Amino acid sequence: MKTILYFTGILSLFFLFSCSDKTNENALNKDASLPDAMLDKVSGLQVINSSINNKKHTTSLLYGNQMAIERIKTNSFHLQKGEKLVWITWYQKSDPNWIGAIIPGELLSLEILESVVEKERLIYQKYAGNKMELQKDTLGNAYRISLLLQQKKAIVPQL
After folding, report:
1. Which of 118, 122, 125, 157 has an alpha carbon 20 to 30 Å from 139's alpha carbon atom?
2. What CA–CA distance (Å, rounded) separates 5 from 7?
3. Which DSSP helix (H) or strand (E) runs through 4?
4. Which residues on neighbouring strands pair with residue 64, listed in sequence order?
C-alpha cells in the first residue's frame, strides 16, 4: 500500500511541476513582420508564388493584384496598366519552436513594380535595410524588373 501511495505522490508531483504558466513569447515571429509604414504597400494583394534561395539563405514571397495574376496566367511578360507586383525577401533563421525548421527571419528587402495608369511607364522601388529606406541606386534595376516579370504563378490545388 505504501508503494502505491509513494508512486501516486511522485506521479502527482511530476504533473504538478511539469505544468507551465509561461506565455510563449516566441509564438509570433516579430523579426519577419513588415513595418507599419510598409503594410499599405501589400494590402489587397494576393500571394502569387514563393521561393527559397539556399545559397543566400533567403526566403521570398511575390504578391500581386488581380491584373497581375491574370497576366501571369496568360504567360505574358508585358506589364499592363494598373498592375502591381511586390517582392518581399527575408533572411532565413531556425525556428525556436521546432527543431530543424527554418522560418523567415529579419526583413531584407521589399521591391515594388507597378505600371501607373496616368503615365505610360514602369515604377520600380526597392526598400532595404533595417529601417526599410528607399534605395536611390538604380544599378541592376533592369535585371530585377525582368526577373519580376518572368515569375510564374504557383500551382496550388483548388478546394
Report:
1. 118
2. 6
3. helix 2-18
4. 46, 85
Q: Tell me how many degrees the CA angle 37-39-45 measures, rounded to the nearest 5.
A: 150
Local confidence pLDDT in tens for the 159 residues of the chain? 667 766 676 766 666 666 555 556 656 788 888 888 889 889 999 999 999 999 999 999 999 999 999 999 888 888 888 899 999 999 999 988 888 999 999 999 999 999 887 767 889 999 998 788 999 888 888 999 999 989 998 887 877
CB within 8 Å of 91: residues ≥ 6 apart: 57, 58, 59, 104, 105, 106, 108
Q: Which three cell numbers stand for residue 91?
A: 533572411
The conformation of residue 132, written as its DSSP 8-state character, comes to: T
- Bridge partners of residue 84, in order along the sequence: 114
Contact call for residues 122 and 111 (beta carbons, < 8 A):
no
The arrangement of strands across the sheet holding 102-115 comes to 46-53, 58-64, 84-94, 102-115, 122-128, 133-134
